[in-house]
Design a protein that fits this description.
- This protein has 379 residues and is of the alpha/beta class.
- The protein contains 14 helices and twelve strands.
- An eight-stranded parallel barrel has the order 3-4-5-8-9-10-11-12, surrounded by five helices. The protein has a two-stranded antiparallel ribbon with strand order 1-2. A two-stranded parallel ribbon has the order 6-7.
- Strand 9, helix 9 and strand 10 form a beta-alpha-beta unit.
- The two termini are 26 Å apart.
Length: 379
Amino acid sequence: MNAGEDLSPLLAPFRLGGLEMRNRIVCSPISINLADGRGHVSDLVVQFYAMMGKTGVGMVTIGASSVSPEGGSTNTGTHVGKPEFEPGLRRLADAVRETGALSSLQIFHVGAQGNTAYSGQPVLGPSAYVCPDIGIMAHPLEPEDIARIEDEFVDAVISGLNCSFDFVELHLAHGYLLHQFLSPYFNHRTDRYGGSPGNRLRIMEAIAEKLARREPAALRRIGCRISGNDFLPDGMTIESNRPVVDLLEALGCAYWVVSAGIYDTAKQKPIHMARGDYWRYAGELRRFARAPVVAQGGIRSLETGARILRDGQGDLIGLAQALIADPLIIEKSAAGRSSEVVPCLECGRCRYLKRKDLTFDCVRPEGAGGVRPEGGGSG
């Protein structure tokens, strides 16, 4: 914690995509795995994200809704893109709006890092690949399946905005499908979707072109999460992401979020977070990106967030575990009572994929772990 750091820039209003955030703090996407088993938003999902809005953040990001039947990490994640999912998603967007926060719906396809044991679905990717921690061979996508998934991403963007989310965030990081197509580590195709950097970018070009034809105004409501470093020789970096940044900024991309690592390198992520590398990657992107950049990854106090802003490493600050451990962190810090903030213990109980029962909670009694189904883990 950086005692004495001026919090006023962090707590001041900010214009994002023409909309006003009440401050520069973003609730980073937290996947809680509490949908109804068919991809529909449950009461527990609404309760959790409304709680995140009530923390006082400027924007709440809904974690990882799948665009495809086979695109989810588990069978209890949320889905988006078909009319059947829209009533629940609209209720979720309305609940966040009532708290005074903006909302962004993150969308993704798990790709070759999928697990049939969790999802009941086949594992698909750009190329044959086995994630070491999962052990399932991904089946290479046929061109017609790639075209289908492109359409599903477009459907998801349009549906998310129609459900009154302020933004839709494309997940191009963490080794998920769009990241896999961009990365030479995953993508070994020899057709028009692989080989050269231009070919690896093709799926993103197609999504952008299809969206521009159907709903051009939606391009200005898209945010993107990219990887600052995959911690691999053939992985993505800020520099290798420059073509996708240039592509989407030319179309009006609203904001960027910088993360790092893939499933293969997950054990390295805490090391790089602790060193502040994630914020450094965000600063690298900010030097050439025109849209605002969200710096996140291991930020556990508002004082640290204020320092990141002061050092020019981000325009906005993303918090996740800090909000879960103490939903009053913003209120306490703004009132000069940072010493009363309940710190995150880094126990991992709020990361459901690290738990055998795939449940979500927080060990802190003051925390946001109370939104769990009956029998879901102890809090």
